[in-house]
Amino acid sequence: MLNHVAVLLRGHVRTFRTIYPYIFEFYKKIAKNVDYYFITWHGSQVNTNTSVIFKDENLIAEVYLQPNVDHGADSFKSSSYLAYMLLPYKHAREKDVHYDVVFDTRPDVIPVLLPNRPIFVPEENTLYTTQFDLHQNFRYNFYDVAVQDWFMAMSSKVYDRMAERFICYNDQGVQVAIRSYADENNIRVNTMPYMGYMARPNIIDCMENDKLVADVNYNQKISEWLDMPSDRKIEYCMKLGIPLTDYQTGSRTCSI
Questions:
Q1: Beta bridge partners of 142
Q2: What angle do CA 60, 246, 19 make, to 5 degrees?
Q3: Other CB atoms within 10 Å distance of the CB of residue 248
Q4: Which of 5-9, 126-130, 170-174, 241-245 has the lowest mean pLDDT?
Q5: Per CATH, the architecture of 2-199 is what?
Q6: Residues 6 or more apart in contact with residue 178 via CB below 8 angstroms
């Protein structure tokens, strides 16, 4: 088991109010001490009572930013800008503790241990993703290696370097650009023994007595959300008290 980890939850709150017990449960399985950092956009935190959600957890920082054109326009800039804005809080905390792992993830992602895989400590100068994909590289007009960017792990030093990527111009596609930025900064990219599943609002179909049933097919629920009519997506958001603006994005896979 790891001694101390940092979990940086950045981005729209979305389904966090529904799934946070499963997020906390995961990190308690792999680490003795867990520090949480929570950062989102103003408006997304509606109906989110962090004093209740984090009452038994170690919440180091809670930050709310105003979205703007430059850093809220696409997830390449916005995710790293949010990560960057947590650096002063992390650096202050690291005067007293050492992090074995820093997790850069989103509030609407459920992390899962893969069967028969060990808990790991990241190698220096390495960025860990859940999976590699092939996405179109818009700069060169061919398919290129991309990383899944919603649940990543790394050392503290690598986190600091990756958080600066928002200053770069992205014309390759978000997940290709992240891998490309790592390459350009001589940071290796590897996979880790965990998965991170996005929990769309229709995840409530998999709940009984306010708890997730066993053996949830997360990928199936994600596919269902993708093909769902907008009016049904809005119904799910309203049922969970999620601001519609959380899902008014340019991402085809999550937008309403």
A1: 137
A2: 55
A3: 10
A4: 170-174
A5: Alpha-Beta Complex (3.90)
A6: 76, 146, 147, 149, 162, 165
Query: What SS3 string covers the chain?
Result: CEEEEEEEEECCCCCHHHHHHHHHHHHHHHEEEEEEEEEEECCCCCCCCHHHHCCCCEEEEEEEECCCHHHHCCHHHHHHHHHHHCHHHHHHHCCCCCCCEEEEECCCEEEEECCCCCCCCCCCCEEEECCEEEEEECCCCEEEEEECCCEEEECHHHHHHHHHHHHCCCCCCHHHHHHHHHHHCCCEEEECCEEEEECCHHHHHHEECCEECCCCCHHHHHHHHHHCCHHHHHHHHHHHCCCHHHHCCCCCCCCC
Closest CA to 9 of 83, 70, 116: 83
What are the residue boundaries of the structural domains of the chain, listed by start? 2-199
Tell me the residue type at 61.
Answer: A
Q: At what angle do helices 174-184 and 75-85 cross, to 10 degrees?
A: 60
How does pLDDT run across 207-255, given as a tens digit for each residue?
998 889 878 899 999 999 999 999 999 999 999 999 999 998 877 788 9
